[in-house]
Sequence to fold (589 residues):
Amino acid sequence: MGSGMNWQRWLMIVPAVVFFAVFALFPMLMAVYYSGLTWNGIGSAKWVGLLNWGNVFHDGEALHAIVLTVEVMVLSWVFQTPISLLLGVFLAGRQKHRAVLGVFYFVPLLFSSVAIGVTWSYMLNPNFGLVDALLKSLHIGNGNQNWLGNTHLALLVVSMIIAWQFIPFHSLLYQGGVKQIPDSLYEAATIDGASVWSSFFSITLPQLKYTIITSSVLILTGSLTYFDLIYVLTDGGPGNATTVLAMDMYKQAFVNQNIGLGSVLAVILAVAGVLLSILTLRFTGFNRMESQLEGM
Amino acid sequence: MMVTDVAHTNANVGLKTRRRRRPTWYNVVFSLMGIIWLIIAFYPVFYMLMTSLRSQQGYLLGIPWLPSLHPTFENYGTVVQAGFAHYFLNSLIVSVCSVALIIACSLLCAYVVVRSRNRIVRIIFDVFLVGLALPIQAAIIPIYVLITKMGLYDTLLGLILPSVAFGLPLTLLILVNFVRDIPNELYESMGLEGASDFRLLRHLVIPLALPALISVSIYDFVQAWNNFLFPLVLTQSDSSRVMPMAIVSFQGQYTMNVPVTMAAVLLSALPLILAYIFGRRYLLRGMLAGFGK
Fold:
């Protein structure tokens, strides 16, 4: 048999290659081509070169979408990382009640972004929603805050809901990371009389370095793709206060039927995704992430 | 595996004795934070459940944060009558077919990537790795055009094909890592007896890579089941509607009937809820597939 390639082996890789080439690679290349067209998707297309690229930045809407995407990235990281880290450390302890709490912590992972979006849009409804009713009964605020309809609040609220959805996932990563830390390190620190604080900062945090990087990069790359939740919660509004890049791309291509402009935004998304992932490989490498699942 | 298990048992003992020695203020603060997060994480889910058991009247007049005194299953009946069994079946067909195709294609490909030193195979694998980085959103416009031109717009097959393509990179990467761990001697001893590649796959690779196959299947199932962008762009009619789309159009139809919509939301997560109840570890491991191992 050896390690060469016979016709059987070529045959074995054909299905994967064909699927990927036809439905992923080819569309990706076509997106670049479409970005140079004036086309509504149905009628005849006209090649206009870089005109769409000029137009998309001309009115500032695309720049606005890029700025919002970066804002969501930063907010997501700030909301998710500290809480996930603390929860991961908490859950890596072995007491019985933590195991029970842990069962309930991860339930949000079972719901799709659509399901989560629909539920939160009801809970935040200014007329009959749970959140305002609760705040009113606690005499906090006026009891009819329009959380998702307020231009200044919407992006913040959306980012918090995103955090609610993804913190369970990241705390699982951290829980796995903490369990990989050799216990002898803590024992030595205890003998040296180190406080809980100092062992957290001088042992736990440094040992979690790669987990922190992995989780952070996942948050950053994930921020490019938040679409479902925003579509359901605000549809990009109010105005365009939550029209992030992916949302803008969808609107341009499928609502305004401007395939060319939409494709420009799609290409920007793809380039951003690849750049962020190159950073992933540079900083972490997949080999260093191995075996975080053991002991779960 | 063995070694780490022993290490964990030791860690376990070590932690316990340490905690017992000092049940101090930080333990109290930590536990308090744990409970606060429990409320934040779980209460919205509890809200889904209790609201789905209310009548419309009870929803408008009752205290929103407490469960109803007279729970009713009526809303679930309404949801089933609205055709959700059909949408559920559609989702099941799309998800199961996607997972089966993703796993079959990636397993065959992973085997070849591990077993041959061919340069072209290397390059193909590298291209798949680049594919990991590409967001689905970036390709959706050409996929829409392609699927329409193939005459597959508004069909379940039109949802399955691109889902498979975008499921391949991560699945392939995980399976390659696993198949690589199988010792070369095992291939060689079976190879000496004249076993073909397909025999090696069936009797050596599949049994040994089974845990990875299960994890990654769950991951792919969750992705396919919860996917929203493909159905939103590639389907239209009632006959090819899947669960996430059904919830959105349901919400539009029953804008003010929150209890019925909450029942629909819970039904949409039913397979994952059942998986969580019966195989929590498998499900969580599956959802982390690729980010852990």
Observations:
- Residues 82-292 of chain B form a domain with the MetI-like fold fold (CATH 1.10.3720.10).
